[in-house]
């Protein structure tokens, strides 16, 4: 686990140096956001890249309470969704988890000019409602990402180890403030065991302020990477 964190830090350090010395990325005004939410049915993590205040790409990683899940990558042209690729697992009629892959490409007017859905290896037709649902999910991700960014919130992941929180980027914090009171059993788990934690919050000086906890897993759980078009 410590090796993983160190490797992630090295990668991010190199990426930071590269972007700082690349005039194209500076002049292109690229901004990246991240966030997440949790409700009674699912936990969602999401990422958004904007160029000149318009979405360029976005991604999400969604886990449902029934153990189904999906990861998506969206490509945008200004405010128009142009392509979506998604992989995951859904429930079969018998209740088993089976894999699926979905790809959609859209015209400039929003028409789905290419669609492919493969469930458990079989190509299946897509209904108009399924396509409309994907388009709505993509739009909701943009709205939620911008809203959380305006509040100063972002996705923070890391490991709680021996009384300190180490982010997936390798930063260490000994002071964490929770806006909402945590249940006592959650506090006991954080104190007594090593855990992977994901939440939305903000960095303030030498502490982290947690707005909402999204995930609490055992210490062997790996940091969640942003899904790409190849995921």
UniProtKB/TrEMBL annotation:
UniProt keyword Membrane, yes or no: no
Signal peptide positions on this chain: 1-20
Top-rank lineage group of the source organism: Bacteria
Alphabetical UniProt keywords: Signal
Name this protein carries in UniProt: DUF1481 domain-containing protein
The species this protein was found in: Vibrio breoganii
